[in-house]
Amino acid sequence: MRETVTTTQTIANPTSHYGDAKASTRHFITQRTTGAINTVFLGLLLFIVVRLAGQDRTDVADLIGSWWIGIPLAALICVVAVHMRNGMRDTLEDYTHGAMYRLLMLLNSLFCLLVAVAGAGAVLKIVFWG
After folding, report:
1. Residue 97 pLDDT
2. For position 97, which CATH number holds?
3. Residue 111 domain-assigned?
């Protein structure tokens, strides 16, 4: 299999196709959307932190166990994990190539999935099962 060598002339030529336009656009929109959602949810997170300052474990479980705090907090954890995956993807695209790139992208996706499932699962367990 022959690999295509990308040169400055290829990139500068407006008629050449460089990269996957649909995937790049989707990545751009996802990164901006998750960033905006994180900004909106920052108010909820600040409320939780201020409300729980100096409280014991029972008060923490009671506040996070209420559905109107716990469910948005679980959603926030999932959105943050998607945003984290996209941010690390940018770094991996810049500094790794070939088989190492594919391996690190797989590990990045698996780690972010693990963070989302563990974090949201812990919060939802408190919400639904106390």
Report:
1. 87
2. 1.20.1300.10
3. yes
pTM of the model: 0.79
Note whether 44 and 73 are within 8 A (CB).
yes
Alpha helices (H) in the chain, listed in sequence order: 8-12, 21-51, 57-65, 67-95, 98-129
* CA-closest candidate to residue 121, choices 58, 59, 74: 74
**CA 52 to CA 87: how far, in whole Å?**
30
Question: What is the domain count for the chain?
Answer: 1
| pLDDT in single tens digits along all 130 residues of the chain | 455 566 777 667 777 666 677 778 888 999 999 999 999 998 888 988 998 899 999 998 999 999 999 999 999 999 999 999 999 998 998 899 889 999 999 999 999 999 999 999 999 999 999 8
Domain range for 53 is: 21-129
Q: What whole-number distance in Å separates Cα of residue 63 and Cα of residue 61?
A: 6
Q: Sign of the CA dihedral 119, 124, 129, 130?
A: positive
Whether 16 is covered by a domain: the verdict is no
Structural tokens at position 93: 């695209």
